[in-house]
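It is worth pausing here to work through a concrete case rather than discussing structure prediction in the abstract. The textbook approach is simple: state the sequence, then state the predicted structure, then interpret. We follow exactly that order.
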Amino acid sequence: MQKHSKRYSNSRVADIDLNSVDTEEKKKESQNNFVELLPPEVTLNIFRRLDIQSLCRASMACRSWNDVIRNSDSLWKPHCLTVRAVCQREIDGDLESGYSWRVILLRNYQKSKVKHEWLSGRYSNICSSISLPEKIMYPMDADTWGEILEAELER
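Step two, the predicted structure:
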């Protein structure tokens, strides 16, 4: 009976130690997470310095980073304005519709990449849809195709 109670008490000690290790790890994670330590203005200033790919990767690092990045519309505005250089009509229309900067960027980023390639003449030598590259072409509306056609006719 004494052996059993001794074994039981050792396992209780092990449980307590494991719980304290978990708590210590959480404290260390919290101490290493600048989002939880710094004032919000400083955190946003750090994230503002990231390019769009880095910002998206940072949002996947942990929940607290994701919350800050996802809910800070001001982080997305500069990237959205860069895309606006190619998709002005689309961005302005989304702004008038009341979309957030993050949503506007999500709606127009891929389109801006494909549209930029078309407008820069990358596909000027294509004679048929068979000649198109295998990469996915973003669906575009009639107005966008009109802009591309005008650019091609001017070339």
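Step three, interpretation. The chain is about 75% helix and 0% strand. Residues 81 and 88 are 9 Å apart (CA to CA).
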